[in-house]
Amino acid sequence: MVVRTCASSSMSAPSNLFSVCRAYVRSVFSSVMARLLGAAKVCVSGQGFVGVIVRRFAVSLAVGALTLAGVGWMARPASSAPGPQEVVTRTVRPGDNVWSFATSITPQGEDVTKNVDRIMQINNMSSPNLRVGDRILIPSDD
Question: Model's pTM, two decimal places?
Answer without folding.
Answer: 0.41
